Amino acid sequence: MPVWNPWRGCKKCSEGCEHCYIHKGDAKRGVNTGEIVRTKDFYKPVEKLKNGSYKMKPGLVYMCFTTDFLIEEADEWRDECWRMIKERSDCNFLFLTKRIERFAQCIPRGWADGWENVTVCCTVENQRNADKKLSLFSSLPIKHKGITAQPLIERVDLERYLNGVEFVVVGGESDRNARVLDYSWVLDLREQCIRQNVDFEFRQCGTHFLKDGKLYNLQTKILCSQARRAGINWKREQAELQM
Q1: pLDDT at position 148, please?
Q2: Domain-by-domain residue ranges, the chain?
Q3: Residue 20 · residue 80 · CB < 8 Å
């Protein structure tokens, strides 16, 4: 699946950033995460082969997974990215953001009620940020919306914000000092999604994972596979077929 990171670098801006994998990875490589710079892949979506076809295949494109698409330092480059996104109408560009409050000032001309090939995923980690960010997110003109509750650091009630949301992704924190992920919080979010007919995905367990009163300490390499083994992902399409 294509990944497009037009720039790299980020700055911590919420409680969920405390043990961010981007900062940890950069530190190991001696890279200054706080320096936001364009990458060699900036024009990746519109690069072409000798026969004139695009190098990047149509379909879902994950973008800005080593940064934030709405970060202030990238304001001068974003319009060019929007131009490429509009040109590649055969791709669905999905990005996560912790800066949803900047969305209205970052959209391009001609956005209107949103573009069909853009999915925006608002990231929250606790109830305070859920209430602050999702109340705004609900009112924004976006065709396709998702919510990422990862890392989830406490029980949250998202149900009042799920109208118009297509999916919710939940996961824990990966770090030796990670905050505990309680499985009951995950199951509670799953029930909220089912009641509102919203797709639900349990993406990864936390390094410190509490289930049925027992605390497990898990290796990073198995966090995603253990979440899949739980078998609790839910899709409205599957549910409709079973009716």
Answers
A1: 98
A2: 1-98+110-117, 124-243
A3: no
